[in-house]
Design brief:
With 274 residues, the chain is an alpha/beta fold. It contains 12 helices and 6 strands.
Amino acid sequence: MENRGVTKVVLLSCGSFNPVTNMHLRMFELARDHLEETGRYKVVKGIISAVGDAYKKRGLIEAEHRLKMARLAVEHSDWISVDAWESSQQEWMETVKVVRHHSQQLLDVEDNYDEVDTVNYGKKRRIEDNQYESSFENKSQDHPRLMLLCGGDMLESFGVPNLWKPEDIAEIVGHFGLVCITRAGSDPHKFVHQSDTLWKYRKNIHVVHEWVTNEISATHVRRALRRGQSVRYLLPDSVINYIKENHLYNAESDQRNAEVLLAPLQRYTESSAS
């Protein structure tokens, strides 16, 4: 008999995945173990959502390739999947909008699409952007709860000026929840303590300590690939083969968007100036 006191959880990881690495996949496993060991959660699904090309990050190759590599990486997983909604958008989508989208998808599936007005729902959510409070206790445990999965570097990026809107951070952490995997050189607990917003919603932040340090940086992987060095055991073999077959990650691809301001910095800097 299913334990009614256990909340189902879907883990969503957003990022460039340029390329997807073994550590990206390892984060899902660490997060699932941590949440389920509390006895309060049952992780039922993991979702990889790659950012779109409009993000304009330096060296960001086409989303088509990043999606294919991610799908190859999870082809043997029985619970992690890849979703193309975010990367298919013409404009860069704020992470909070991606989280809302997948949360609504979960509700639609659970309710069998029964009388759900997604257009009005979206309008209502936009109106209430600044009004979210932590309300997980009041939600039906019949619906899976979406949590954003990230590394310590993403958590600390909340403090970078014009990279995130404060109200988006409050909504992601306060209304949905965050699972943060530690990385060498980062101290998520200290960062949470220093941020009033994160401190307010600290009960919704799950910090997972990775005792087996395995610092696989996509930046370092791309550098090795440009130099013709081996990246075996850093990426799934199927991903390495795809990179070789499609001649990805070279000096030319590294210069892509080199002179372009990152999409969130451009958008939020313009907003603050107006």
